[in-house]
Specification:
By secondary structure, the chain is of the alpha/beta class. It is about 45% helix and about 15% strand. It has a single domain, classed as Ribokinase (UDP-N-acetylmuramoyl-L-alanine:D-glutamate ligase, 3-Layer(aba) Sandwich), CATH 3.40.1190.20. The protein contains 10 helices and 11 strands. Strands 1-11-10-9-6-5-4-2-3 form a 9-stranded mixed sheet, sandwiched between helices. It has a two-stranded antiparallel ribbon with strand order 7-8. Helix 2 crosses helix 8, helix 3 packs parallel to helix 4 and helix 8 packs across helix 9.
Length: about 250
């Protein structure tokens, strides 16, 4: 197991920002605006194209794709299917964020399993989500995990092997694995769990970072950058509102 430090991650960040990758985000309505702002700050270019009629033509033009099922509705399914199919067809390294997947919400669960057939390059989730997808018992309350990322290390490796992808399980310590190798990141602030869309935004940042290059190390670099931004924000904030603003500042490419 190898730690990804911010100093290492910063080189990947610099390279990503110089290319300004176009990230096709099909994300949830709670996270959309913050996600777009973070990608813009970090040096990427976000696009929130959702109509199936447009996705068919747009996804092949983007550097990569994020699909986040946080506020999943039936009228979104065709667009997400089309985007995932186009990403697979055109060899785009796409990221799946299986928000709140579990036994209770069967509509969501079944659709996530369907999306997995389109071979995402990365699955990014909290410990409860990753444990569930690996066939184990994960504790979830709404979109939040009651299990720790430490508990999900082996599940993440098993899931990565099963779907031949990189799995990112986030928490107090993030673990990033391709089933054989493991990276981890440390730092950040607990306040990131109290500002909505921090996890969803990380998934988009991962998508930007893995547009080119080593998926495992670039996904780990995105996690390290987010942890670093959390550290910076924690040192500056006076409340949750200022923390969110400071987090965005910490994710600004210069």
């Amino acid at each position: 197991m190898q730690r990804m430090t911010f100093e290492q991650a910063n080189m990947t960040w610099q390279a990503m920002a110089k290319k300004t990758p176009l990230v096709h985000c099909m994300t949830n309505q709670v996270a959309a605006a913050f996600t777009a702002n973070v990608l813009l700050a970090a040096g990427a270019s976000p696009a929130m194209v959702t109509a199936p009629e447009e996705v068919q033509h747009f996804t092949p033009l983007a550097a990569n794709l994020l699909i986040n099922v946080g506020t999943l509705q039936r009228d979104q399914l065709d667009g997400m299917r089309e985007a995932a199919e186009q990403a697979q067809k055109h060899h785009k390294p796409w990221v799946l964020d299986p928000v709140a997947v579990g036994d209770v919400l069967r509509f969501r669960r079944d659709f996530v399993y369907e999306l997995l057939t389109y071979q995402p390059a990365v699955i990014r989730g909290n410990a409860g989500e990753i444990l569930f997808l690996a066939g184990e018992s994960g504790r979830i309350r709404g979109a939040d995990s009651l299990s720790s990322s430490d508990e999900a290390q082996e599940a993440a490796q098993a899931l990565a092997k099963r779907y031949r992808c990189v799995v990112v399980v986030t928490g107090a310590r993030d673990y990033i694995t391709d089933g054989a190798l493991m990276r981890y990141t440390e730092g950040g602030s607990v306040l990131q769990t109290r500002v909505t869309a921090c996890g969803c935004t990380l998934s988009a940042l991962v998508a930007a970072f893995v547009a080119e290059g080593n998926v495992l190390d670039h996904a780990a670099a995105a996690c390290a950058v987010m942890k670093h931004a959390g550290d910076l924000a924690a040192a500056q904030h006076t409340g949750l509102g200022s923390f969110a603003q400071a987090l965005l500042d910490g994710l600004t490419y210069e």
